[in-house]
Amino acid sequence: MSIRALPPVPGWKFSPHQDVIDQLRGQAATRLSTTATSGAQRDAAVHRVVTELLDEHARTSLAAGRMPLDPPVEAQVAAAIRDAFSGLGPLANLLADKKVTNIFLNGPAVWVTYLDGTKKRVPPLFSSKGELVDRIRDIAARAGTDERRFDRGVPRVSVRLPDGSRLFATLLSREPAVAIRRHTLLDVDLDILTRQHAVMHPTVTRLLHAMVRARKNVVICGGPATGKTTFLRACAKAIPPWERLVTIEDTDELALDLDPAHPDCVALQAREPNVEGEGGIDLAELVRWGLRMSPDRVILGEARGGEVVPMLNCMSQGTNGSMTTIHTSTSAQAFTKLMTYAAQSAERLPFEATAPLIGTAVHFVIHLAWSTDGVRVVSSVREVVDADHTQVISNEILRPGGDRRATPAAPLRPDTLDELAVAGFDPDLLAGW
C-alpha cells in the first residue's frame, strides 16, 4: 500500500477563516433551534439562514470599514456552516467518492484509503473535538430507531450510515477516533464477484451456488477488510426468494430486508442498554428470538462471542442453509475460534462439547484473503467431516495456491458431491479445473 501524507496539522483549527465559521455557525444554531422542520425543509431552512448571516456579516464589515469576504472565501465559509447542519456534515463529500474504501479520523488527522490500495492524509474535517463528537452523536441519533449513546458513560458507538457504510467511534483514545468502513458492493451476487472482481474461479462460483441451494450451513471467515460481509451478501443472493430469512447483527450492514431478492426477510439488530443500564438485547438473545419467527434460514452477520452457541444450535436444529462470518487468519482457525467463543459464552461449553456441535452444525468453511496482487479472493474451502474429542475433522477441498487463490485439493465426500449434484453442480468441473 502506498501512502501520500500531508505534513502534521498543528491543532484542530485548519481554516484561516475558522473564527468567522465558528461565529456564524453558533448564530445559525441559535436561529435554527426554533425550527422544527426535517429533511428537505430543514435543508432549505439551513440554506436560508446561512445566506442571511453572510449578508449580515458583509454589511457589518463594510460599516466597520473592513473588506467583506471574497466570493470564493464566502462560498467556502457557507459550505462549512451548511455541513455542520446536514446529516453527515463534512464527511458527506468523502462518502460520495466511490473510490474511497475507508475513512479514519484520529482526532484532527484524517486518513483515507482508496480502491487502488493507496492511502492519503487529507485536510481536517472538524475544527474542534466538541464539533466532531457532536457530529457523531447526531449521526447516531439519525441512524435508527433505538438509542445510540456516545459519551463518557458509553464511550463507543457503531452505526450503519445511509449508504450502507459502517461507522465506529470511540472516546477511549487521546482524541476521538472514528473508523468508517465502506461497502462499495451493496447489490452484488457471486457471478458479479467472479466476472468483475476476480474473487474466485468460475468453478468455485458454481460450487457455492450449489452449497446455498443444497441448504448447507456455511461459515465465511477471513481477516479484516477481506470482504466477508460483501461475500455473505452475495451468497444470500443465491437463496430462493420464497424462503423466509432472519438476519441478526450488531449494526445493520447486510440490509437484506431492503433487497427485493429477499421479500420475506426480518432484520434484527442488537440494542444498547439505556441510560439506566436496562433494555439491552445482545446477539445471543436475538438468535433465540429469531428461531421463534419460523425462519427457513438464520443469517448472523458476525460471530464473535456468546451468540456462537445458539447459532450452532440453530444450524443443527432444522434451519439448514444458515450462514455467518468470523474473523480468522486461516480456514482451519475457524474451528478454534468458534470453540473459544463457546467456552466464553453463558453456557461455558468445553471444547469436548463444542467440537461435536460444530461437526454436526457446520458443513463448509470458506476463507477469504488478499491475493499477492492485491485482490480480495476465495483462498480456501473446507468441508466439515466429523469431530473427534476436541478436534473438528475437515477436508480442505480448495487450498491457497502460490498467489493465495483457491486451487483444487482434497476431494469432496461422495455423499456431499451427490447432494451438490442434485442442487445443480457438475462434479466433472472439479476434475477438469
Automatic annotation (TrEMBL):
UniProt keyword Kinase, yes or no: yes
Highest taxon above the source species: Bacteria
UniProt cross-references to InterPro entries, sorted A to Z: P-loop_NTPase, T2SS/T4SS_dom, T4SS_GSP_E_ATPase
Molecular function terms, GO-annotated: kinase activity
Spans traversing the lipid bilayer: none
Keyword Transferase appears in the UniProt entry: yes
Domain Bacterial type II secretion system protein E: start-end pairs: 124-365
Pfam families in the cross-refs: T2SSE
Gene3D superfamilies tied to this protein: 3.30.450.380, P-loop containing nucleotide triphosphate hydrolases (3.40.50.300)
Alphabetized UniProt keyword annotations: Kinase, Transferase
Family of the protein in this entry: Belongs to the GSP E family.
Protein name: Protein kinase
